[in-house]
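Protocol step 4 of 5: obtain the predicted structure for the target chain.
Materials: sequence only (see below). No template structures provided, no constraints applied. The aim of this step is simply to have a reference model before the mutagenesis design in step 5. Sequence pasted as it appears in the construct record:
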Amino acid sequence: MGNANIRKYSKGAIALHWIIAALVIANIGLAEFTEDMTREARGPFMDVHKSFGICVLFLTFLRIGWRWTHKTPRAAR
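Step 4 output (structure tokens):
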């Protein structure tokens, strides 16, 4: 049996993947946007940057747990 009947990833796994990807891309964009700002002007943006990073860390652990507890589809041939 195994994962022979599973044809695609679950909606939860797909959602976690794209949420993490969006946060990482937003974080990179935020860092680039604030690169030339003064330290004082950058402060609030860096708070958001750190919050996004913490969210990515939490969601990554959640995704790892999801992967351990859910079957995955077979690799394409």
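Step 4 remarks: The two ends are 18 Å apart (CA to CA). The mean pLDDT is 90.
Proceed to step 5.
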